[in-house]
Amino acid sequence: MTPTSLHTIPAEVMWSADTLKIARWTTADGDDWPGRTVLTVLLQGCPWSCTTCETPDLSDPLVGGAVPWSDVRTVISRSRSGLDGVVFSGGEPTRQDGLADAMEQVRAMGLPVGLHTSGSYPQHLAAVLSLADRVVIEIKAPATLYRAITGVGASAHKAFASLRLALDSGVDLQVRTLADRAVIGAEALEGLRANLVAMGVTDHVVVEVGTPSA
User: Fold this and answer.
1) How distant, in Å, are the alpha carbons of 87, 105, 111, 145 from that of 133?
2) Pairing of strands 22-26, 38-43
């Protein structure tokens, strides 16, 4: 039997929210959109293996979804009077083709949409930025230390390109840094802060993790 080619999959299927690999949804994390009651949809798969990853169980892109989008949509629809928004996170949500459709469906239900991303897919981010009311980008380190955090070359270029796109779009933006202190010293962290300010970042949250390097 000939393996199914991507070219044989109808576009309306490939880009449907029903294709999303969803690991789980939660309403427990108040940091996802401070001051709001939100439902957070956690998508499976990420191209990086970060030392600071808070959801390592979501990193494997070959793991299938555990919850169908139709179930999540039903929960959102039933709960929308008590929700102030829906956040798509992961893993890395922008790696999945069905993200834009899901975001559009949430907006059609009258709820604002948040997006949490590492910025690992700048072109994919550009395609969904207009559908986001708030974006949180995790900038993990100064560019010279990025590979030590992500384990992937060129990751800094992609992350900072995504940050530039978000800044230029004018979307409500927060930059977060989970600073691995075994990799990032105080001077490097201060340099990152200064660079982000120079780029135009006005909301930068740093959470220091690990033991500071000697």
Assistant:
1) 10, 14, 10, 30
2) antiparallel
